[in-house]
Design goal:
The chain is mostly beta strands. The chain is 6% helix and 48% strand. It has one helix and eleven strands; from the N terminus they run βββββββββαββ. Strands 2, 4, 5, 6, 9, 10 and 11 form a seven-stranded mixed beta sheet that branches. The protein is globular, with a radius of gyration of 13 Å.
């Protein structure tokens, strides 16, 4: 049972990356899947979440319009498309999943109830 995260790397400001979070050994159906990030010297913050049952998505206010979360049920994978990247987006990005055990907001902002975690992937935005 694991979440495999991929897609990080070095990108110039204004560039794009797509992160993938593939579940192995369990299904992402009926779960809340979220992306979180931790920048150097800072705490972890919620980036985006999606309810795999209905596709409802949440984004941190500062990221709306630049990041898009999506899910592919056939591939058991969730993606985070990141556009117009800025140096302040530099961080280790993690994906997590959990059953809807509390409010969507608490799961997305505080990661409460996120029982499955993937390894982080480093995104560096720099010229």
């Amino acid at each position: 049972v694991q979440l495999v995260v991929s897609g990080g790397g070095l990108v110039q400001p204004g560039g794009s990356l797509r992160l993938s979070c593939a579940a192995s050994g369990f299904t992402l159906d009926s779960k809340i899947i979220g992306w979180f990030r931790q920048a150097p010297g800072k705490g972890r913050e919620g980036v985006s979440c999606i309810n795999s049952s209905d596709g409802y998505a949440y984004y941190a206010d500062s990221l709306k319009g630049r990041f898009t979360i999506s899910s592919d049920h056939a591939k058991n994978t969730v993606y985070l498309q990141m556009n117009s990247l800025k140096p302040e987006d530099t961080a280790v990005y993690y994906c997590a999943a959990g059953f809807p055990s509390t409010t969507f907001q608490r799961m997305c902002l505080e990661s409460i109830g996120m029982d499955f975690w993937g390894e982080g992937t480093l995104v560096t935005v720099s010229s």
